[in-house]
Specification:
Helices cover about 25% and strands about 25% of the residues. By secondary structure, the chain is of the alpha+beta class. α10 links the parallel β14 and β15. The chain starts with a helix and ends in a 12-residue tail after the last helix. The N terminus and C terminus are likely disordered.
């Protein structure tokens, strides 16, 4: 065994705490990395999208005749031109490649244009005439819960209700010396990757549709692309191009189906590059959530119960929303030992932009609520918020909200202790240490 291999075996994590050079760092720093938006191939057409721009409406008519006659235009497509199943989605097939019966969010695509250059494509998009009949938009949690509100999809606007139950809630309430009750709202957030979404598609001599895209999951992309284009899986090849930032955003379909449709129609390479504005209006976001929490503790500082409700806005499509919002409920207690729990989560359809995966996957939103509750309880008890957390944090042998036993991988206590040591070494003290009046 070589010396390097021996060191790896003896110290598998020897690189922790050291500066490690990324293999692709130099070429990215020098601007040498070629992203999809940089790629140019002979005979390439440029694509543009007509966006709905309104949250909820019946589509009466889309007139593309003038756009199709515009100089330099090779193709103009609407939902009628989708050869396969005009549905896609990571978990539920509730999104349309091109809106057909109605508009469900302002970020819905109504039509596609492929032209010799971007300017010609933009001019053609402006010539498309759309007749929309506005519908009442569902934009808030209350709208989505209104039984008299118009359904965005068949089945209603409450897509999923999940529960977390542990212990005896009433007993926990009875044992509490202090109770804190509050509501929290987290906002919609965009990932803002430096590279906007882009795709390049072409049909090769063997008849395979090749799609180059900055994606986080090429095989899952293919499973959504092929049915929409009415192609067998082995006739679709998705190439994961360099990604200029994703953070969960590029887990979903962006440009893939659109460039595929245009490449099949024109039999020429087609590239679509989103502007920053399009990236902001048309792609997934972090889920906004409304959370109502009631949390109790005994006089000695031990947590007694959590009673909570979480409402998550998944927008006009599920994407991975049902899992994100469910996970927020599972993590509603945070890294703390709470013996009695009732948490309900609701995944709600709205006419807002689709929300999907983003770093943290629902845990970040829940943390806003449970950490605020911890601070308020500590303040009411006259305890340091750090000591309060150390007293209540999960430790090996304790169980999470869903009954999962903690093992040696549970590091919250060591983390909190490290913070305590740091503060003590520098004589740092919390200023708000008295009990609330």
């Amino acid at each position: 065994m070589s010396e390097d291999a021996s060191r790896e075996t003896a110290q598998p994590y020897h690189w922790i705490g050291r500066n490690v050079t990324k293999p692709d760092a130099l070429e990215k720093a020098l601007g040498a990395t070629e992203y999809v938006g940089d790629m140019v191939v002979p005979g390439m057409l440029h694509a543009k999208i007509l966006w709905a721009g309104t949250p909820h409406a019946v589509i009466r008519n889309i007139d593309t005749r003038e756009a199709a006659r515009a100089p330099g235009v090779a193709a103009v497509l609407t939902a009628a031109d989708v050869p396969g199943t005009n549905r896609y989605g990571l978990a539920v097939l509730d999104q349309r490649a091109l809106a057909d019966d109605k508009v469900r969010s302002a970020g819905d695509a109504l039509a596609l244009v492929a032209a010799e250059d971007e300017e010609a494509a933009e001019e053609a998009v402006a010539k498309i005439k759309v007749d929309l009949e506005p519908l009442r938009p569902i934009l808030t949690y209350k709208d989505a819960l209104d039984p008299d509100g118009p359904p965005i999809h068949e089945g209603g606007n409450v897509f999923q209700h999940t529960t977390v139950r542990k212990g005896d809630l009433e007993q926990g309430i009875a044992e509490s010396d202090v109770i804190v009750e509050d509501s929290y709202h987290t906002h919609r957030m965009d990932h803002v990757p430096m590279e906007p979404e882009a795709g390049l598609a072409y049909v090769d001599p063997s008849g395979v549709l090749n799609i180059l895209v900055g994606t986080q999951y090429p095989y899952r992309d293919r499973r959504q692309i092929a049915p929409a284009l009415d192609l067998p899986m082995n006739k679709v090849r998705v190439v994961q191009a360099p990604i200029g930032g994703g953070f969960g955003r590029k887990d979903d379909i962006t440009a893939e189906i659109h460039v595929g449709l245009l490449a099949l129609k024109t039999r020429r390479p087609v590239r679509l590059v989103y502007t920053r504005e399009e990236s902001l209006i048309a792609n997934t976001k972090r889920h906004p959530m409304a959370m109502s929490f009631r949390t109790g503790a005994r006089a000695d500082g031990r947590l007694t119960f959590l009673d909570g409700d979480i409402y998550g806005d998944t927008g006009a499509g599920i994407s991975l929303g049902a899992y994100v919002i469910k996970k927020a409920g599972i993590h509603a207690t945070g890294p703390y030992d709470v013996p009695n729990i009732r948490v309900d989560t609701y995944t709600l359809y709205t006419n807002n932009l689709v929300s999907g995966a983003m770093r943290g996957f629902g845990v970040m939103q829940a943390a806003v609520a449970h950490e605020s509750q911890m601070d308020q309880l500590a303040h009411k008890l006259g305890m340091s918020p750090l000591e309060f957390r150390i007293k209540n944090c999960l430790k090996p042998g304790l169980a999470s909200s869903t009954g999962q036993l903690m093992n040696e991988g549970c590091g919250i206590e060591a983390t909190l202790q490290r913070i305590k040591d740091y503060m003590n070494a520098r004589d740092l003290r919390f200023k708000r240490s008295q009990a609330a009046s």
